[in-house]
User: Fold this.
Amino acid sequence: MLALQRATHHTLHALSTALADLRLTAAETNVLANLAAGGALNVSQLSAETGTKPSTLTNVLDRLEDRGYLSRELDVQDRRSFRLTLTKQGTVIADRIGTAITELENRALAGLSPNQLAGFHAALAAFEKAC
Amino acid sequence: MLALQRATHHTLHALSTALADLRLTAAETNVLANLAAGGALNVSQLSAETGTKPSTLTNVLDRLEDRGYLSRELDVQDRRSFRLTLTKQGTVIADRIGTAITELENRALAGLSPNQLAGFHAALAAFEKAC
DNA sequence: TATTGTTATACTCTATAACTATA
DNA sequence: TATAGTTATAGAGTATAACAATA
Assistant:
């Protein structure tokens, strides 16, 4: 578990360095990456994906909305909630994030066998399931 | 990488729940766990282990010292730095943390084969090396 | 001169409780 | 009544730059 935390810390630093010109915090980057990967989520779903409380997300979403990267669109099915959708500009940024993540992953994991990778994914899934 | 972050979030929540009565933050827990695992480190070494800056650690170490869990002992070899050593009380707490971590790991990873576990460790090491 | 660690500062992350609007 | 999300609040995490003490 300590190694897991350490690896996460390191990847966040590396990602932040690779994307320094975007001037995004780790939480902002994480939100954009999750929206790019998961489509138009609402706040609850994003909260579950990122492991943070809705109230924590409010400020992050405010900043991303102010910068024109996403919009809160009232969900016509349930008018208590919003669909969080990336703007054109936000999609461009999110794509850069996705590319940077993929490059980091490829570079870091290049030397591993398919078997080792499968074990890695299985362990992550096991932690998510058990915790 | 998103899954890695998510797994870390989940494990931190689970650990915090298991140790709720200790009233420690994640950073405090992490410091105690690293000192228990690594012996008497100095601030620079702890900074490297935890992935945080020395200035970030100052407040965490202050709180842990105030609570009687660790002491800063002047390093006679290099009087600019401290050896961070757990007190008796701190060792007891750190042992509980270590036990809780081991239990969580055992529970989460119980279903995995030695091969899968090996792949997991290899991937973590690869991320630390590349990032 | 360089390094270790702290202090001062500013901003972000985080959660809880209270609240509004909707279901 | 219950749920989605925000607001208000308070505390903790985070880094940078300036600093003191030591190497």
